[in-house]
Every structure is written in C-alpha cells, then in structure tokens.
Amino acid sequence: MAALLLWIPLMPLLSSLLLLLAGARLGERPVALLGVGSVALSALFSLAAILSFSASDGVAWGIETLPWFSALGLEVGFSLHFDGLSAVMVGVITGVGLLIHLYSVAYMAGDADFARFFAYLNLFVAMMLILVLAGDFLLLYLGWEGVGLCSFLLIGFWYRQPENGYAARKAFVVTRIGDVALALGLLILVQQFGMLNIQDSVDQARQLWPGSDLAGWVALLLLGGAVGKSAQLPLQTWLPDAMAGPTPVSALIHAATMVTAGVYLIARTQGIFMLAPQVLQLVALVGAMTLFLAACSALVQHDLKRILAYSTISQIGYMFFALGTGAFSAAVFHLMTHAFFKALLFLAAGQVIMSLHHEQDTRRMGGLLRPMPFSALCFAIGCAALAALPLTSGFYSKDAILLQAYAQGGAGFAWWLALAGALVTALYSLRLFVRLFLGDCRTLPEPDNRPLLCWPLGILCLLALFGALIPQPLHDVFSAAPQAHVPLPVHLLVLAMPVIGLVAGIWLLLRHRDWRQAFATGALARWWRAGWGFDVLYDWLLVRPLLWLARVNRRDLADLPVQLLVWTSRICHQGLSRLQSGRLRHYAVGIVGGAVLILAVVL
Amino acid sequence: MIGAAELRALLPLMLVALTAIGTLLLAGFRRDARLAALGYQGGLLLTLLTLPWALPEQPLEVTPLLRIDGFFGYFAALFVLVAMAVGLMMQRQVRSKTSGERVEESYVLLAICLLGALVLAGAQHFAALFVGLELISVASFALVAYPCGGRPSTDIRQRNSLEAGLKYLVLSSVASGFLLFGIGCLYLDSGSLAFAPLPPSTSLALPGLALLLVGVAFKLALVPFHFWSPDIYQGAPTPVAALVATLSKGALFAVMLRYLWFGALQELETLVPAVALLASLSMLGGNLLALRQRDIKRLLAYSSIAHLGYLLLVLLAIGHAGVAIEAGAFYVLAYSLTTLGAFALIGCVCEAGDEPDYRLEAFAGLIWRAPLLGASLMLILLSLAGIPLTVGFIGKFYIVAAGVDAGLWWLLAVLVAGSAIGLYYYLRIILIMLAPQSEPSGIGGGRWLVYGLTLLLVLLGVYPLPVLQWLPVL
C-alpha cells in the first residue's frame, strides 16, 4: 500500500520528464494521452489511498524515510505522510487536476507548444502532490519551490508577448519574498530540533516551546511564506497579473491548488501557530482585510479574468480568516469547495473567452444567455456558489467559517469585515453574471461546445452544487473545536447576508442605474480598480528607489572590490605564469626554495 | 608470520602483481595490443571481484608493513577502478592510431603503478610507504615518456613526452631524496619505522616531519613544488596524465591520511602553519595559474593543484573533526572520477584529428557537434567547480563541513576565494563550448567511457548514500 503513495506524484513526474525530452517529436494525440493518462492514473491511486485510509478509520500512514544522505548528525531523507489533510488535498489536486487536464486538451488544441504545455502542467501536478504528501520539510520545500517554478513557466507560457514575461517575473519575484521567509522559518525549526520530519518537529515544538518567543517568530516566518504563495496582503499584487497565462492554468494553479498552498502550510503546522496566539490573530486579520479589499476590487474590474482573480484572493482571505480564528477544518472545507466552484468559473470563462475570439473585457460582452445557454448555466451555478447562496457548496463552507469564527472569538473587527465581505461577494457575483449574460449582445459569439470542453464543466457544476456532501476526515488532524453556542440572530444574519447582497444588487440594477454610473466613474472605483493602489505604492516605495540606486551606482564603490579582485587575479596570474619557464633548473630552485620555506615555518 | 588468513588478505596485491607479470609474458610471446589489454583488464576485474572476499572481517596486520582493513578496501576498489578506466583510455589511444608503436608494455607499467598504489593504501610502515611510492614513480617515468600515439623521436609530441619524462625523473628523485632524509630523521628519533605516535620532545622529529612534508608536497604538486606538473601533464600521453593526476596523488594522499590518523596527530600541531601555508598557496596559486590558461591539459594540471589544496584542509581537520577521514576519502573519489572524465573527454575531442589540438578552442561548438559529449563536458566542469547535483559538490561540502567542525575559518575563506576564481575558468570553457561552431572537426572514439563516468558523477552527486554508507567503516 505504501508503494502506491509513491506512485501518486511519480506518475505525472515521469510523464512530465518524458514530455520534456521527447514531447516535441510526438503528435498531439500521444501527448494528450500521456499528459491526461498520467494524471488519471494518479487520481486512481489517490482514490485507492483515500479509500484505504477511510477504511482504516483514519489512521495516518506513510512511507518511512528513504535515506538520501547523512552528514554531521543530520539524517536527510525523503518520507511521505498521508493523513486526513493530505487526503483532502490529494483528492482536490488529482480530481480537479484531471478535469482541467481534460479541458486543456480541447483548449490548447492546435497550439504549437502543446507538448510543452502538458509537460509543465504535469510537472505542476507532481510538485503540488509532493508538497501536500511531504512528510519532512525538505520535500515540502521542494514541492513549494517546484510549484512556484511551474507557476512562473506557465504564466509566461506564451512568452513571445513581453507583458506575459513581465507578469511571470512579477509573480516569481513577489512570491520569492515569501519563500525566503518560509525557508528561514524552516531552517530555524531544523536547527532547533535537528530533524526534518514535520509531525515530530511540531510535536517537539508543542512540548518545548510554550512561553517561548521562538514559536512566534517561526509562525511569523511561516505566515510570510503563506501570504506570498496565497496572494494575501501585503504580497497579493502578483495574482491579478498572473492571469496572463492560459485559462486552464489560471483555473488549476491560480485558483484551485497552488494558491491554497499557504492555507495548507498553516493548517499543517497549526501546532506551532497555536503556541503563538498573537500571530494567529494576525492571520485572521490579514485574511479579513484581504478578503474585504479584494472583494471591493473585484466589484469594479472590467477584465473577466481579473474579476475572478480578485475573487480568488478574497476567497483565500476567508480561508486565512478561518485559520486565524481557529476554525481549521472550516478553512480546509472552504478550500475544497472553492476549488470546485472557482475551477468551474475559470473554465466556463475560458469557454466564453474562446467563443468571443479571445475577448476578455466584460464591457464588450453581454446578452450571451441565448447563444450560450450551457455557459450561462455553469456561470449561474458558479456565481451562486461563490456568493454562498443557500444549498450550494459554497454556502455550507462559508457558513461554517463565519459561525465557527463567531463561536471561537465572538464578533470582532475581523468578523464584521468578513461578514461585510460576504455582502460584497454577492454583489460582484451578480454583477459578473449580469454583465456577461443579460443585456444587449455586444460581441457576436461563435459558441465552442466541443465535448471535451463541456464534460469537465458539467462534472464541476455537480461538484459546485453538491461538493459539500463529500466527507472530510479531518477530525484526527485538528484538535476538535470546542462547541460554543451561536445565538440564533447571528445564524440568521450570516444566512441572510448573501441574500441581502443579492436583493440589494437587483434593486440597484433595476432602479438606480444613475447611481451605478456615478460610482463606476468615481475616484473610489478607480482606486479599487487599481487594486487599492498597492502596485503604485510598491512601485514608488520599492521598485523605483531600487532602480534609482542601481542607476546611480552603475560605476561605483560596490564594483571596486570586484574590479580589484579581477586586476589582482590577472596580475598574480601573469606573475605566476612567468615562473613556469619550462627549465628544469628553475623548477629545482622552486623545490629548494619551498623546502627552505617549510623548514623556516616549522622550526 | 604469514598464514592462510594473511595470504587471503594479500590476494588483491598478488593478483595485481600477477596481472603485471602475466601481461608481460603475453606481450613477450605475442605482440597483440588487444590481447594485452584483455589480460590487463581481466586481471583487474578479477581483483575487483575478489576484493570483498579477500577483505578480512577485522583489520589484519600482514607483517609489520601492511594493514588490511576497510580503509584499504575502499581505496583499493577506487584505485583498481581508476586503473581500469586508464587502461580503457590507453586502448582507445592505440585503436585510433595506426603508426605501429608498441603499446603492450604500457599495461605492464600501469599494473605496476596500481600495485604501488595498493601498497600505499595498506601501508602502515615507512618502508612500505617508500616501496609503494617508488613503484608508482618508476613506472610513471617510463609511462610519461612512453611512445604512445606518434612516430618515434621525429614527432614533436614524442619529443615532448621524452622531455616530460626526464623532467619528472630528475625532480622526482630530488623529492624522493628529501622524503628519505625525512624518514631517516624520524627513524633516528624514534627507532622505529612503523606509523606510530612519536616520542615527545626530541630534536630530530620536527625537521624530519618537515622534510617528509617537502617530499609529499612535491608528489602532490602543491605550490611551491608544483612546477613540474603542468609540463608533465602537457607532455605525457593523455591517459598517463590522467594516471598521474588521479592514481598517484590519490594513493599518496591515502597514505598520508593513514599516517596522520595513526601516528603524528600531536606532532601535527607544530606542522599546522606549514601545512596551512601549503594549502592556501595551492588553493590560490593553482586557481590563479589556471585563470587564463589556453591549453586544456595545463589548465587541468593547475586545477588539480587547487583541488589538492582543498584536500589538505582535511589533513588539518583530522584531529578535530570526526568527519575528516570520511571527507578526505570521499573527496579523493569525487576528484578522481571527475578528473578521469575530463581526461577521457580530452582524448575523445582533442585527439580526434591527425594532429592533437589541446587549445581550448578545440572545444568550440562542441555542444552543437556532439550534444551528449558537450553535456558531459558541462557536467564534468560543474563537478570540478563543485556545483550541486554533481559529485564534486558533495565532496566539497564534506570538506567544508570538516573545516567548520575544526574551526579552520581562514582556510575556509581561502577555499571560497579559490573556488570563486575557479568558476571563472571552468565557466569560460562552457562558454567556448556553447559558441557557434568555427570549423568542423571529428570526434574520436572512447565516448562511452566519458558517458559512463559522467553518469556516475551525476548519480553519486544526487544519491551519494551507497558510498557514504561505506565510509564510516574506514
């Protein structure tokens, strides 16, 4: 059984290597077969692993350390770990990943770099699986950096347009800031406990660190890594630009899986975060702020994919908020349902964009309900789940977050922000749907209804509606939250918030077009549209000073030591070379001189 | 007293000696290069295969001269493999040239070299040390001047190799003189030639050790005793240069490791400044000399000077750090593997035409001409530079770890500086290799040896555990 676990990440990894080496020589059909087949096998193995896991009553198991090397008392090896949290993540990655791979076969058909696309996509799935199955920090970090690399490669997949390359670089550099923090945090853990195993290290921390400042610092550094990868404040700026990649990539990497790696990281190391309540509060605050700011930005965007990107940031903000308030299982629950409905929305958006000849601006869309009823249905379900309308999967998970958060900490500032966010979410979901499907038809679509595009969408529709019914074996991973009484008015308020948002939206739509118009052209909307000005802020605070410094410093002090080194090296080289005369007697003199030197030093 | 157990332990040495005699007889009765090569390789393969059986469970002293233990086993296996690879290179040299030279005896000399190396790997006595060392040296004099791959005496290359052989002979004899003098002093001092701690506070021990150090430093080509090595590397046939670079240096380093480990630890304290000086001079000097070198063989000579400088760190760390012996043993392996690969590649690329071309420009456009060879060259150079995922990185990592444990901060700083300079000339070759091809030229045979060595170099760089598990038993 344990060997099975090994094959889950190995299948896509091998297929990726094969595609990288020989993909250019294969036709589209074998490439697609290899790319999709490997993920399908991986999904099959995952299913087997999950089934055997639940059959054994949720006992965590894994592969013992495969030794790599050992030096200076540190045993370095690889181990895999499979528990409830890994099970959920693996299920989401391989399940949603498989659907997106299928969709990509149709979406990318005819692209000159078909094989390269699937090689990267498979590599991504492999790295993501390594990340969530890792039993020790080394593999975790490998997966973490691996998904970052794949994200970079896939955002810049169409590298001939310079702006795609820019977006890829931006994503890489911004997440790198978080990665450095993560690396530091992990190094502190390894240095303190002298082992790489995640579970053991966290257990050690639980026993040794209560009351120590170190837990806080490590948690803070881990949080730094998490906000970078999950596009949370203050490192959220890369995700909207990352939409430059192909749409399936946005669905898989920048909505369903990779950006939730931060959530996974915090959930995995929750034992350390529990030791640092202030950092945990910070997590909640970061999440709440992010979810609200991003929801406001999503409300005023024009680009279809940017709306979805901001909505992703906002939804991951909910997960962080849940983590910070101690509602760990609710966070992971929302992670799963979000993966379903956001993948649905992205893939449906991809279909719309394809049908409109790569038009992404929602101002030139509208009235698509009649020509594209299937897409409209997908969007309706996706938006309903996103807005957390009752009986969709998003409803259950967001409800769980808000209620558990209330039960844990009452109604603080962060909680009210999260509640307000729910309202704004409903508003922008409605706006998205209305813009695309109602009103006048501005661009005539050529509906693209190939079965490979539609089948994955259909399955995702079902998941977005009923995904909340999938059981989550998380009770052994997280210590059960203490049951607290939530008063009925709070229940009703949480329940009603999306509905209020929806009704208010319809009311605005029907009655007060002039208000909308005034708002959309106002300064506030412009500010929100620019993502609250973070890009400009960072540009002025960081990028420009750095560029200025580099320009001023072009020929300067810092170069001097380097130049000096070059000169001395060259001079020494010439001097020494002259001694190589090729004459025996000179060489003999060298020996005698050396002997004298050594005797002089020793005696 | 030599009994059955001792004979069994001596089996590797006897088999190699038999290989030398057998090859000589084969060559005497029938002049056939292929037959001689077969005899040589067969003998060595037999030695390698019987090695695990021959090694005793417990360290065994065979006469006061030799000690057969895990340390011997590790180095013996390494040296036999090195000798086999050199033999393969030699064989290719013959196959590509048809000028009627006689190459059969070179296998005899190679086997004698290997015998000397094995004696050094097992030596625990100065007599064994000297015998082993001279076995290697005498055989190498002849090998360096060996008429290999050219018309006798008229060919410029032939004259070069004669000159190189003569230089090596003269200078090496001087160094051996120093070595003997040093050994003599130590004998006068302690009354014993065995590797053992010296009695304290005597007048002759220190000068003796210093003179010993001079002799050893010459053989290891440490700055300022390095002058011979680029000339020898350049003049000698390529396989022989590989032999001098790997087998003879590795064997001498092994015996030094054992000597310091067994005996002179406390005496080392007083030698530290001298060894540290040699190490830092070698690390800097070797790399600086290689900096703008245009001849690949001379460049490798300088690079190997620097590598031996890194290795000296291990000798200094030996008293302080537990990993020092492991580090040294592993680095010898890493260095030998990589250097062999480099020389095999030179044989493959530079000696393809009628006239060998050892300029760096011979590699221009290699990656386009022969992608696999180009990739191999890149990996070999990265391994020499100590970049991760190659065996060179693991070796250097070990040395740095040993140095940190022993607190040799200044020497580590020099090591870092030397490595940084080293990157320049290693990467420059890669740059030349990536340049558009200037003139089309062929590729010689022997590329499978290069591929094999490169593969091993990457495998051990990614997964060094099989070797590392072996090391603690030393």
Automatic annotation (TrEMBL), chain A:
Keyword Membrane: yes
Residues that span the membrane, as ranges: 6-24, 31-53, 84-105, 117-135, 141-159, 171-194, 247-267, 279-300, 307-333, 368-393, 413-431, 452-470, 490-510, 584-602
Biological processes annotated in GO: ATP synthesis coupled electron transport; electron transport coupled proton transport
GO cellular component: endomembrane system; membrane
Major subcellular site: membrane
Statement: the UniProt record of this protein carries the keyword Transmembrane: yes
Membrane topology: Multi-pass membrane protein
GO molecular function: NADH dehydrogenase (ubiquinone) activity; NADH dehydrogenase activity
Location in the cell: Endomembrane system; Membrane
Superkingdom of origin organism: Bacteria
Key words, A-Z: Membrane, Transmembrane, Transmembrane helix
Ranges for domain NADH:quinone oxidoreductase/Mrp antiporter transmembrane: 134-410
Residue ranges of domain NADH-Ubiquinone oxidoreductase (complex I) chain 5 N-terminal in the record: 68-118
Protein name as annotated: NADH-quinone oxidoreductase subunit L
Species for this entry: Marinobacterium nitratireducens
Gene of this entry: nuoL
UniProtKB/TrEMBL annotation, chain B:
GO CC term (a single one): endomembrane system
Assigned keywords, A-Z: Cell membrane, Membrane, NAD, Quinone, Translocase, Transmembrane, Transmembrane helix, Transport, Ubiquinone
EC number: 7.1.1.-
Residue ranges occupied by any NADH:quinone oxidoreductase/Mrp antiporter transmembrane domain in the UniProt entry: 123-421
GO biological process entries: ATP synthesis coupled electron transport
Transmembrane segments: 12-29, 36-55, 71-90, 106-123, 129-148, 168-189, 209-228, 240-259, 271-290, 299-323, 329-350, 371-395, 407-427, 448-471
Subcellular locations according to the entry: Cell membrane; Endomembrane system; Membrane
Gene Ontology molecular function terms on file: NADH dehydrogenase (quinone) (non-electrogenic) activity; NADH dehydrogenase (ubiquinone) activity; quinone binding
Annotated Pfam families: Proton_antipo_M (PF00361)
Catalytic activity entry: a quinone + NADH + 5 H(+)(in) = a quinol + NAD(+) + 4 H(+)(out)
Mode of membrane association: Multi-pass membrane protein
Function summary: NDH-1 shuttles electrons from NADH, via FMN and iron-sulfur (Fe-S) centers, to quinones in the respiratory chain. The immediate electron acceptor for the enzyme in this species is believed to be ubiquinone. Couples the redox reaction to proton translocation (for every two electrons transferred, four hydrogen ions are translocated across the cytoplasmic membrane), and thus conserves the redox energy in a proton gradient.
HAMAP family linked: NDH1_NuoN_1
Recorded family membership: Belongs to the complex I subunit 2 family.
Oligomeric and partner information: NDH-1 is composed of 14 different subunits. Subunits NuoA, H, J, K, L, M, N constitute the membrane sector of the complex.
This protein's name: NADH-quinone oxidoreductase subunit N
